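Page 42, continued from yesterday. The earlier attempt failed because a stray header line got pasted into the input along with the sequence. Redoing it now with the clean sequence only.
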Amino acid sequence: MTSKAEAAYLTLRQHILDAQLAPGAPLRHDRLREMHDIGWTPLREALQRLEAEQLVISKPNRGFFVAEISEGEISDLLNTRLVLEEPLLEEAMRLGDEDWEVGIVEAHHRLSRAANILSDLTLENLRDWDARHRGFHLSLINAARSVWQKRLYNQVWDHLRRHQFHMTIAPLITAKQAGRAPDDTLMSRLHNAMNGLSHERLMRAVLDRDTETARLLLKLHVGETLGVYRAVRQSHGTPDHAA
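This time it went through. Structure tokens are written below.
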């Protein structure tokens, strides 16, 4: 049975990763205790776990807050992702067997069957697409041996997910509520980052054991995320949060 502290931790973590709790938002003890029917000790335990993951920060005499985001942090996270993913991908291409190849094809098929979330942008659809997208990239590196590198890779992916959810969902919903059409540059960037063709090309390069092409395609694919962030800021005037 899940303890109250564990339940509070999982709920708060999901809300932060889904951008339902905005960067910099205060996590007030009285409100959280009322929402989760939880005492101070287990609540503090949950917040300390989130602080250890750098999803939450504490400020002396002010309490806990959702960690901020910034363009500099996104750039750092993307570079860290590549530092981890490139060698894992290369090792997987050297060691991968037929089962590994089948896993990649299956994961790509699942991703290709995902709904077009840009035409029906809901949190449920975005969660589904994100799970399939992560599953595809994990399948590419599955044959690599390092457990710790994969663990760190997943941690970086969680933080990138939070940034991406905040910079896609929040501005688009705000624009929709204000009756504004989404910016063409932003939508073009999103399509480029999420389209199936880039994933298919990457899959084929990996299955062909074409290391040079796979590395190039991975860098281009990952780099689109920063382009999306900049397009959002330009389209909606979103300020760059202090890290």
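Notes: The chain has a mean pLDDT of 85.
Reminder to self: strip header lines before submitting.
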